[in-house]
From TrEMBL, chains A, B:
Superkingdom of the organism of origin: Bacteria
Domain MaoC-like: 22-115
Source organism (scientific name): Neorhizobium petrolearium
InterPro entries documented for this protein: HotDog_dom_sf, MaoC-like_dom, MCH/BMMD
Pfam families linked to this entry: MaoC_dehydratas
CDD domains registered for this protein in UniProt: YdeM
Protein name: MaoC family dehydratase
Classification via SUPFAM superfamilies: Thioesterase/thiol ester dehydrase-isomerase
């Protein structure tokens, strides 16, 4: 049986796509921070505890990158994605701490075919990443370009 | 001589803070993609050439993470930053290809003290990341919380 593949036509308004889950380790938090965001609360447990974040906490850019992988594994790898022009907004609502398990979902907000690029449509998503307590740690909206199934079939 | 430190009061509207420069290597593009965004155009030169990106290209989340480090090294590490609640928007305008050298700037758009957190103000920045051809590869806005110098001096 072939895996289901998602084309533009499958992204109906309101449809929900689960993200893969992700255990966040101290080692990963520190490794990412050392390369991209070496602020003390992302590098050191004691500095994290002393900060308003309350513990060794992932850089917001690390959380965003982990979200990307959770989305890829959850559904994007099986879609006709052609990439994204950007992020409409992204909010870091709660600290992501070492030992947290993240999960979440992408919800279709709206979609429209692109006049400028025949065969491609733009799908706008609300993404929500939660921790194991059900608290939203990060949320944001971004549009992703998707090939139309119709275009795929005409090309075949 | 002590390095200059930037407090809330130093972020006057229109003031420009240069980002550090960054050479983007193929190895780094592939390493980030393998962990966070394993789409073919971020993992493989031939797949990148075949895509609309025109070459082995960094994940947009990688560019955002590199930007964070360029900001840290450029000026944020010498500021009174207390972190950020999120991103207002982020646009990926041009592919970031292996061999590109990135530079850029953060420009203060506006600032205001926070009523809810005495001693802290919110500074909104426009961030621009350019390649070696002077093309804007990524741009976005985000607010960063900064301690007031006044609060620092009262506490001392």
């Amino acid at each position: 049986m072939m895996e289901e593949r998602y084309f533009f036509e499958d992204f109906a308004e309101g449809r929900v796509f689960p993200l893969a889950t992700k255990l966040v380790t101290a080692e990963e938090i520190i490794e990412f921070a050392a390369e991209f965001d070496p602020q003390p609360m992302h590098l050191d447990e004691a500095a994290g505890k002393a900060s308003i974040l309350g513990g060794l906490s992932a850089s917001g850019w690390h959380t965003a990158s982990m979200f990307m992988r959770m989305m890829f594994d959850g559904w994007l790898s099986r879609s006709s994605s052609e990439g994204s022009p950007g992020i409409e907004f992204m909010q870091w609502k709660k600290p992501v701490l070492a030992g947290d398990t993240l999960s979440g979902r992408s919800t279709v907000l709206e979609s429209r075919p692109l006049r400028s690029r025949p065969g491609i449509g733009l799908v706008k998503f609300l993404h929500e990443v939660e921790n194991q307590h059900g608290e939203v740690a990060m949320r944001g909206e971004n549009p992703i370009m998707m090939r139309l199934r119709e275009a795929q079939e005409n090309a075949a």
